[in-house]
Amino acid sequence: PISDTVAHNMARNGLLQAARCNADVVQALGLGKRIAARWQKANAKCLAANRKAGDVAGGLGAISKSLRVLLQSAILAVGAYLVVREEATAGVMIASSIMMGRALAPVDLAISSWKPFLMARQGWARLEDLLEKVPETAPVMLMPEPERELRLESVTIVPPGESKPTVTGIAFAIQAGSALGVIGPSGSGKSTLSRAIVGAWTPVAGKVRIDSASLDQWDREALGRHIGYLPQGVELFDGTIAENIARFEDDPDPEAIVAAAKAAGTHELILRFEHGYETPIGEAGSMILTLRLLSPRRKQRARTN
Questions:
Q1: Which domains does the chain have, with CATH numbers?
Q2: Taking the complete model, does pTM exceed 0.70, yes or no?
Q3: Over pLDDT 90: what percentage of the chain?
Q4: 192-211, pLDDT tens digit by residue?
Q5: N- to C-terminal Cα distance for the chain?
């Protein structure tokens, strides 16, 4: 049971780690609720394993209590022997047994409750720290599908953990049907600007607007369906290839999945796998990388679907 608990806990934490490493992708594509649902399923399995391990621990606790009763019985037996030999009184025998039980009871309780107490205290501290750092987001009204323009108004961006802005005072407007290329040396802020445009990072000044509405006025999941975002480092999420292409929708259209794969040039590549589109990715693409059939470039192509 303990090994199962560790395995399920690692799977749960692995999914959480993958989501955290790809937080900008999750934010940009509106995958937050779907990734959270998958984490809840993994968490349920972990909790079930924990309950099983708890049953085993409860059995061990029962054994320890039985040993305590056995020890008390031994004390009574020794006391009875001494009473028969007139070396002690019956009151001394009974008092010794009661004092022995009372002395061992707090020790047993502390031993059985110490680990859960520490885990609960640490979990509560982590939860308080997380709630302080993550602001509560209010529900927003669903906006019409974006169709007119993307506009940046004097946008200044400071990367998380930094004190100086990487991008300062950027302003431009792109009409529907137009394209804009940003060229610059490494570290000039191209990726930073991209993260701000898709909403992964929040500018410290200025606004990013789509059809005149700032990003905080859009529902992230609804807007994410209209955004294509490919960062420099790409990780696939734990699931099948089809689930990654469909962005983990509940009832995806198989024809749309195949069409997206063909458009990205990955259809033939996917069919080379034994299970095709149902091939499990594994944590951070570990199952595919083990087969050495999915290079980082191919992972990017899979993500562009």
A1: 2-133 (1.20.1560.10), 149-218 (3.40.50.300), 241-303 (no CATH)
A2: no
A3: 7
A4: 898 899 888 889 999 999 98
A5: 40
